[in-house]
């Protein structure tokens, strides 16, 4: 082969290789994966919450009182701009009287005030459990703007102890949960210094912050068993 022929054929061969994607040429681009489309949650959802009270002499044997019961359910649906009670916070008058006397008022007034201010949507009022173990249920609605639930009930008899949830979200992974179970261990409202279920009234002055009960009489073997559970189930 002549030198002139070499000068022509080599560039021609290289151009053929590049055009065919060979000899280290650019690979075909990988198609981008199709975007995953998630369905948007419904604007509103309805739930039934069942309070299953399990507190009895076998679950909490220390100093177990006669006539164990729970007061009427009270709470609301709301957004994160308001909290009706929280761990480490001071009890409002509504929380104090719920925890000490089992009253639904004035906590209902506090929820109504939050509704008027645009921080809450619905007041939740339910029946009591007149004898524990026992159960009661309540139906309610939530919305995308107000997806949180606060719900409480007094442990009775007790100084100022209660069970409940604060700001529980029913949205998870971008959609309404089908069901959610919350085990309920007792809280101390920090407003009465009694140490047993049937202690006489002893006003805590100044009041302490709301905190979990951890010792006698609710502790069993170094831990505190639940006194019941909330079971939230979405309705069709």
Give a written overview of the molecule:
The radius of gyration is 31 Å and the shape is elongated. The strands form three sheets. Strands 2, 3, 4, 6, 7, 11 and 12 form a seven-stranded antiparallel sheet that branches. Helix 2 runs antiparallel to helix 3 (107-116). It is α+β, with helices and mostly antiparallel strands. 15% of the residues lie in helices and 31% in strands. The model is unreliable at 1-23 (pLDDT under 50). It has helices spanning 3-19, 93-101, 107-116, and strands spanning 44-53, 69-70, 74-78, 120-125, 134-143, 148-156, 161-169, 171-172, 175-176, 179-184, 187-188, 211-212, 228-234.
Helix-residue proportion: 10-25%
**Amount of beta strand:** 25-35%
Unreliable segments of 5+ consecutive residues: 1-23
Gap between N and C termini, in Å?
84 Å
Q: Using the CA coordinates, give the radius of gyration.
A: 31 Å
Structural class of the helices, strands and pairings? Answer: alpha+beta
Nearest-integer average pLDDT: 90
Q: So how many helices? A: 3
Largest sheet: 7 strands, antiparallel
What spatial form do the alpha-carbon principal axes imply?
elongated
Following the backbone from N to C, one meets helices and strands in this order, namely HEEEHHEEEEEEEEEE
* Total E-strand runs: 13
Summarize the entry for a quick read.
Helix content is 15%, strand content 31%. It is α+β, with helices and mostly antiparallel strands and 236 residues long.
């Amino acid at each position: 082969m002549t030198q002139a022929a070499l000068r022509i054929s080599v560039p021609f061969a290289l151009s053929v290789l590049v055009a065919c994607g060979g000899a280290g040429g650019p690979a075909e681009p990988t198609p981008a994966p199709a975007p995953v489309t998630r369905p948007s949650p419904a604007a509103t959802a309805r739930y039934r919450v069942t309070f299953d009270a399990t507190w009895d002499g076998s679950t909490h044997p220390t100093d177990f009182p006669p006539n164990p019961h729970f007061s009427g359910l009270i709470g609301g649906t709301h957004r994160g701009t308001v909290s009706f009670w929280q761990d480490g916070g001071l009890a409002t008058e509504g929380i104090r009287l719920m925890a000490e006397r089992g009253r639904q008022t004035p906590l209902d007034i506090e929820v109504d005030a939050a509704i008027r201010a645009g921080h809450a949507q619905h007041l939740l009022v339910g029946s009591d459990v007149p004898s524990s173990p026992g159960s009661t249920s309540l139906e309610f609605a939530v919305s995308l703007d107000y997806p949180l639930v606060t719900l409480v009930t007094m442990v009775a008899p007790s100084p100022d102890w209660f069970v409940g949830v604060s700001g529980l979200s029913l949205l998870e992974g971008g959609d309404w949960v089908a069901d959610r179970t919350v085990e309920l261990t007792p809280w101390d409202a920090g407003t009465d210094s009694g140490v047993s279920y049937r202690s006489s009234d002893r006003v805590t002055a100044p009041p302490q912050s709301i905190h979990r009960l951890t010792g006698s009489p609710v502790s069993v073997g170094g831990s505190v068993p639940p006194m019941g559970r909330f079971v939230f189930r979405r309705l069709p």
